[in-house]
Each structure stands twice: as C-alpha cells, then as structure tokens.
Amino acid sequence: MAEDGRPGARVELSGWGWRHAGRDAHTLRGVDLVIDPGERVLLLGASGTGKSTLLHALAGLTGDDGAIGGDEEGLLLVDGERARRGRAGAALVAQDPESQIVMARAGDDVAFGPENLGVPPEGIRERVGEALEAVGFPYGPRHPTGALSGGEKQRLVIAGALAMRPRLLLLDEPTANLDPAGADLVRGVLGRLLERTRATMVLVEHRVAEVVDLVDRVVVLEAGGGVVADGPPRSVFADHGAALAAQGVWVPGHEPAPSTGAAPGGAVLLEAAGVAARTPPGLGVRVPPRRPVLENVDLAVRAGTATALTGPNGAGKSTLLTLLAGLARPYRGAVLPRGPLAAADRRPLARWPARRLARHVGTVFQHAEDQFVTGTVRDELRFAPLRAGRGARETEAWVGELLERLRLTALADVHPYTLSGGEKRRLSVATALSSGPSHAPDVLVLDEPTFGQDTRTWSELVELLGELRSQGRAVVMATHDGLLLRRLADVRVRVARGRAEETGRTAAEGGTRGRP
Amino acid sequence: MADREPGAPVADALTLDPPDDGGARYWLTRFNPAAKLVAAMVLGLGLVPAVDAVTGGVVLLGVLALVPFSGLDRRTLLVLGGPFLLMGLSSGLVNYLYGVEGLEGAVGAAVRLLAIALPGLIAAAGSDPTDLADGLVQRLGVPERPAMGVLAALRLLPLLADHWRTVTLARRARGLEAGRNPARMAALFFGRMFALLVRAIRTGTLMATAMDARAFGTGPRSRARHSRWGTGDTLLPVGALLLLAAAYALSARLGTLVLLFS
C-alpha cells in the first residue's frame, strides 16, 4: 500500500492526566510513556482505567474542538505536536461497528474520511479501492452497509480508517462485538496489515490471549494513576500476570476457574415447536422484503440444564431467545410450557400475561439498560418481589441479601444508568432473579451475559448461573464466549441459516466440571 | 453549487448510476432527488394561494398519476401517507362542521392539504438519502455539515427502530403490561421513550465520536460523489410549473377558483 513508505508516528506523554467533565477523580494521572515509530503496543488495565480515554486523546478527540469534554493536564504529543484530530494522521477503530458506519453504501463510507481530509476525488477513488482490497472486503463499493454482517462491518470500518492513510492506528477492542468467526477474520486482516504498514499501533483489548501475537510491547495502566508496568508481553505477564488477574484483567494463563455445581438435569420446561420468525418491515424505495430469520425451529429446554445458543452474528440467536422467553410472538409455530411450567398456564408463552411470565421466566438483555424500569438500584430489586405480592419485610431482607451478594450495597441509592458496565450486568441479572429466594424463575434466559465483563464479574456470573442450575432451574443463553461454553454449557445448539441444531451435549461430565 | 461542471467524471466508481432496473415502476427514482424536491416545492408553494377543490384537485390527480412510477410500495405509502390522509380528512371535517364555506370549502381544504403534502412525500421517501444529500449540497447549495449530519442520523433510524422493539420486549420481561388502563399505558409509553432516549443519545454520541475521529469538520471537504443533473432534471420542475398553471387555468375557466384572502 501507498503508506508503506511512510514511517509511523512517535507518541510522547509526560505527566499526562485526564478528568472527565463533571467527575471529581482523574481517570488517568501522571502518565509517562514514549512510543517509538512503528511500535505495536497493547494497553492493559482493569475496567475503568481510562484505556479508551487515552486512545481518544491520541486521536485528538479530547482537544478543544473534540467530542469529549474534560480537563487535561501534562503533555500528549504526536510527532512533537499536540494531538489534533484528523489532520495529524491518526485513525481510530472502536468496538461497535454499528455506530461507526456513517454512510449507506460501503464505498461512500470508506470515502468519508478522505473527503473530510479534502483529498481530491480521483485520489479518493484510488484510496477506497486500495482500502477495500486491503481488508479483503468481499463486495463492491456500492454494497449497502446495512446488509453486512458484524465482521464485515468491522472490516469496512478498518478500511475507512486505512483510507485516511494513518501513521498512528488506534484500535479500541476492535473484535469485541464480533462472533468468533468475525473476530478471527478481523484479527487476520490486522495481522496482514501490520506486516505491510509501518504505522505505529496502539491496541486496547479485553481478551489478551487472542491479540498477544500482534503486539511487541505491553503497557499496563492503573486507574487514577499512570503506567505501572511496561515491556515485552512475556516479561510483563510473568512479572505482573497474577496481580493483573487479581484486578480482573484477562491474562493468558490466569483464566478464572469458578466452581459450578453439577447439572442435575430434569424434565422439559419449554418446547419450541415449528417456530419461524421474520425480519421487521422497512420503509422506502427498494427496501429488502421481510426475510425469514428462523424457519421451523424445534427446541426443548430442560430443567437443571444450561442450554447455549451459538452461531454467527445475525443468525437469529437473540430472536430465538425472545421467543423462548415468551416476549414476542413467532411468525409461525409456538413456544409451549411443559411439565411444571404448564401447571401455571397451558397457553403458548407469548400469550401469558406479563406479570405471570416475569414470575416464571426471567430475561437478561444484552444491553442491561434496556430492562431497567425504576430510578434506583434498590427500587430495581424491590420491583419484582413487591409485584409478586411479597411482604415489605420479606422484600427488604431479600433485596439486602442480593445487594450484598452482588457487591452493590454501596450503590443502592444511585440511578441504575450511572453504574459501570460490570455493575449494570450484575444488577440486570439480579432483577431477573429478584422475585425472592425460593421464587427465582423456572427459566432464566440470557443474551450474551458475559460480554465485555472482567474476570471478577465473569466468575460471579458463572457461579450464580451454576447455582441456579443446581437448584433445577433451566438456563438458556446466547453466547460467543468460548470459556463460558466450556464451563457451563450442557447442551449446545447452533443457530445458523434459519435452523437450530444441537451440536453437542456434555451432560455426562457435568458433575466433574468446574473445580479449579 | 456545481463546482466541477460539465465535464464531470463518468467512470466514477462511487457515483451511483441512475437505476435502470425495475422499469417504469422506478421511473421517478431516475431523477436527481434535488429536482424532485424542487418540483415538490413548486407545487406545494404554488398551491398555497388557492383554497378551492378544483385547483388542488387537478394537482392532486396529476401527482397521484405519478405514484405508480415513484418506486414506493403500498406499505410505505400507507405508513408515511396515512398521517397526511388523516390530517386532510380531519381538516375537511372541521371545516365542514365549523367553517363558513360549507361542503365545498371543506373538500377544498382537505384536497389542498393532500396536494401540498403528497409531492414532498414522494420526493423525500422516493429518493436515496445519500443522493438526496448530495443533490442538496451540490445542486441547491445547502451547507455541507448539517446535510452530512442529517444523512448520518438517517442511518441511525433502523437502529432506533430496533432499540424500540427491544425496550418494548424488556418491559414485558419485567412484568409490565398496560392492559386496558389508559393511565398505565401512558406511563409505560413514557418509560419506554426514556429508555429509548438514553440509548439514542449513547448511539448518537458514539457515532459523533466516530465521525470526529474521521476528521469530520476539520476543514474544507472534497466530494467523492458527483450529483448528476440531466435535461430531465430541469424538465421535472418545469413540468410541475406547467401542471400548476394548468390547474389554475382550469379552475379559473370553470369559475371555481377561490384565492386565499379574497
């Protein structure tokens, strides 16, 4: 590629610190760091240490006309100048491809950056062609961006960054939102790119093991502080691995090993019979017709069993979950209660009154915020038991216990939206369970429950789910998390091309698993 | 306005060719969206002075005749046009019940509203948003930053629709259901609106950050796409003007023309 000849940018921070607007504490402070041209650096730290903030600052987004407001101190220089967005040669790729694609057609989207840089039209066309080729984009420039899969979208976002011919490539968990196949694709693209370009790269990634081959240096940050470790990956992990792992960082060789009880198994509680679902309708000219997402899916959910739905992004896992949870009506077929669940109501789940449904089937959404309905953490937890008719004293005792157990006691009176990612996740699981100790729902349905969590929250979640399973409750989850699958999944169902097929059953070894 | 004229690039990978598939049903989509918008504005503004049913009716019939060629399907027309139809009918009804002009005035009010709204609806909903923004910026001199901002926001609409569905499902998951109680229905609706707003702000902020990171608004932009303008694009507003003139002439001839403030 054309930028091959251009050296990467040199980054220099001294005494650098950042405090977000409206916060009392500094996110980062006293950061001293020099990154030489062409170096590949992985930034590590527990959640909330300001890794993303540092990337944004390097991209020039925290400057005077930047999108992010706050107080800056110390020096942050890219090639000896204060970082300015765009013209300084930095390009940023963030987590969620959905919110980074600006235009409706692939080529237009890649052209967006060069257009903003004032590149003449002929030059733009050349750059768009090059960038799309560099990421192995399988379609033409006129392909609608809305019709791309998650992995394809993220490849397009990387192409959009490359088209700006960056000398400093900033990657903020670029594979976090992707299914394993999509993440592999993107990592492959990055690996090939880094061989060809001399650009400096700074990478933030949760799951370290998967990217450690892409970097030659690891820098560990501390919340409210600066750099606490710096060096080649192997020596940093050897010296600081245990300490990092204790803070919840995913470190190779220090994977959490939660103890999950045995899977007792049990009767079928839910049965999907011939279920079909379609995409929602669109409006406009030449909108694609409603397309089937699921066709004729049959699935049985058993008590005392963890059922995992796997499969590529967009294959209909989340849709199937909402149908199994009785939240939406399938286009054809029905999800029917069986065994003890049928004693509550014999009708298809989608026709149950919401109150009854919430008592028997708990749902945890991928974005925890979607399911919060009150103004404080405590009210969120009180909500279900009070509606289920529990007395005030019983409710308070149970809410106190849940708060303690989920490490949310200190936050009982704050608004749920102000919690951190891990806290939100813990609260959302708690709300789905909070009808009472002996009244947890018979079926718990979770969409990507471990997504983006540090090892501490991860372990707590897995232990909690294991405990529910031991009590004979059914756990159904959609997940890409390989470790979660190994630790907890008894039955694996692959959802792809409108079908759901059981691909594995590990119930036999259920009793021996999960002991560290 | 047009800066690289008229020898604009032809083999331009990013400029969309006028769609030639689909035949007559998509005839209107071949025009520059800016031309459609100008034509719609000619009709809309031109109808403001005339309040009788005949002038509006002729324009309405003329535009209705184009609907089958607009590329819009029945569902889109119904969903987007439904509110206007309702507005037209209710405005007619109110005029009939309380107006001084009786049935004639009422029909005039309804027809006029529809005749003003329909061309704009066809122009906006029947155009590709990117082409529309390009046309507005390059042909009508609309400032670039707001046009691109609105275009990016349009890409968020399907995401918002998704969020709305999720938020609705989440209320049911928590055991919230309005049943037939209107007060509870309203409370639930506002709860969902709030949850949607939070998500929308978050997504919007992420996208703004992404646009900033791609140097949006750091200096003068160049343009990867060229907004084409052919003879047909000039003729479309002219045609609209002719239709308008014909409507006024016919109405005057029949003696039905009633002007505002007359």
From TrEMBL, chain A:
The keyword Phosphoprotein does not apply. Residues 11-249, 270-516 form the ABC transporter domain. GO terms for molecular function: ATP binding; ATP hydrolysis activity; ATPase-coupled transmembrane transporter activity. Coiled coil: none annotated. Keywords: ATP-binding, Nucleotide-binding, Transport. One of its GO terms (cellular component) is ATP-binding cassette (ABC) transporter complex. InterPro entries: AAA+_ATPase, ABC_transporter-like_ATP-bd, ABC_transporter-like_CS, ABC_transpr_CbiO/EcfA_su, ECF_ABC_transporter_ATP-bd, P-loop_NTPase. The keyword Nucleotide-binding applies. Belongs to the ABC transporter superfamily. PANTHER family: HEAVY METAL TRANSPORTER. This is Energy-coupling factor transport system ATP-binding protein.
From TrEMBL, chain B:
Pfam families: CbiQ. Its main location: membrane. It is found in: Membrane. InterPro entries: ABC/ECF_trnsptr_transmembrane. It comes from the Bacteria. This is Energy-coupling factor transport system permease protein. One of its GO terms (cellular component) is plasma membrane. It is a multi-pass membrane protein. Keywords: Membrane, Transmembrane, Transmembrane helix. The chain crosses the membrane at residues 37-65, 77-98, 105-126, 235-261.
